[in-house]
């Protein structure tokens, strides 16, 4: 942000405690569903880094952790619709139970792309965990097995891993961001 730009306005939407409770509930469900199995959790960078870190610490099953990095927004507040892989995961996924861990599902195009990429590597199963899910503009072709919170009204949210122009990822809560020029 340049010194002459007005800072965006932030309206708190979800507190740290609300998020922690929801992560605990999702983790409990994952523990039940994958009991006796080994899970491979793949965090979709960068936005998922806090959700993944919190979620895997609730798990009591064996978990391998990997990351893939995609970009569809750049510095914009609207998805470009074009998914780019900036960093691929390591090793084979053949025969593994894969959990894709996403901070937010907006259009669903990132996950449509990644699901196909992962299926091609012959895992035993694929499932999706997403902390925030926008309602209304979904084009996701796959089920969201573990969903944190639904978002109505298409807010642009930041915090808990999510950014605007690289900032606000470190907030322990989630806020709606409104740019000065749109107010
Ligand atoms: C965001 C978010 C998801 C994706 C969701 O990532 O973290 O990965 O967009 O949008 P979609 O459902 O419309 O595809 P972004 O591309 O901004 O990268 P980042 O995680 O590094 O911020």
Distinct ligands = 1-O-pyrophosphono-5-O-phosphono-alpha-D-ribofuranose
% residues in beta strands: 25-35%
Helix content: 10-25%
Distance between the termini: 18 Å
Give the SSE string: EHEHEEEHEEEE
- Count of alpha and pi helical runs: 3
**Rg of Cα set:** 16 Å
- Mean of residue pLDDT? 92
Class based on secondary structure composition and strand pairing: alpha/beta
Q: Overall 3D geometry?
A: globular
Q: Which ranges are low-confidence, i.e. pLDDT below 50, for 5 or more consecutive residues?
A: none
Largest β-sheet summary: 6 strands, mixed
Instruction: Enumerate the strands of the largest sheet in spatial order, edge to edge or round the barrel.
Output: 4-3-2-5-6-7
> Which oligomerization state do the chains in this entry correspond to?
single chain
Number of strands: 9
What report would you give on this structure?
By secondary structure, the chain is α/β, with parallel strands linked by helices. The protein is 20% helix and 32% strand. It has helices at residues 16-33, 49-56, 109-119, and strands at residues 9-14, 39-45, 63-71, 84-87, 97-105, 125-134, 146-151, 157-158, 174-178. The strands form two sheets. It has a six-stranded mixed beta sheet with strand order 4-3-2-5-6-7, sandwiched between helices. Strands 1-9-8 form a three-stranded antiparallel beta sheet. Strand 2 (39-45), helix 2 (49-56) and strand 3 form a beta-alpha-beta unit. Helix 1 packs across helix 2 (49-56). The radius of gyration is 16 Å and the shape is globular. The structure holds 1-O-pyrophosphono-5-O-phosphono-alpha-D-ribofuranose. 1-O-pyrophosphono-5-O-phosphono-alpha-D-ribofuranose binds next to strand 2, strand 3, strand 5 and helix 3.
């Amino acid at each position: 942000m340049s010194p002459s730009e007005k800072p965006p306005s932030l309206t708190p939407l979800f507190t740290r405690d609300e998020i922690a409770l929801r992560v605990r509930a999702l983790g409990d469900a994952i523990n039940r569903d994958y009991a006796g199995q080994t899970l491979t959790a793949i965090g979709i960078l960068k936005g998922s880094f806090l959700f993944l870190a919190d979620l895997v610490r609730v798990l009591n099953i064996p978990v391998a952790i990997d990351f893939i990095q995609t970009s569809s927004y750049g510095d914009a507040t609207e998805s470009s619709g074009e998914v780019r892989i900036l960093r691929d995961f390591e090793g084979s996924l053949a025969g593994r139970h894969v959990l894709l861990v996403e901070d937010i599902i907006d259009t669903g195009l990132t996950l449509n792309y990644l699901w196909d990429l992962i299926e091609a590597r012959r895992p035993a199963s694929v499932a999706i965990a997403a902390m925030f899910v926008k309602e209304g503009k979904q084009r996701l072709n796959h089920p969201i097995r573990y969903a944190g919170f639904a978002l109505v009204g298409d807010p642009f949210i930041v915090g808990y891993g999510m950014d605007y122009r690289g900032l606000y990822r470190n907030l322990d809560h989630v806020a709606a961001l409104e740019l000065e020029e749109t107010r």
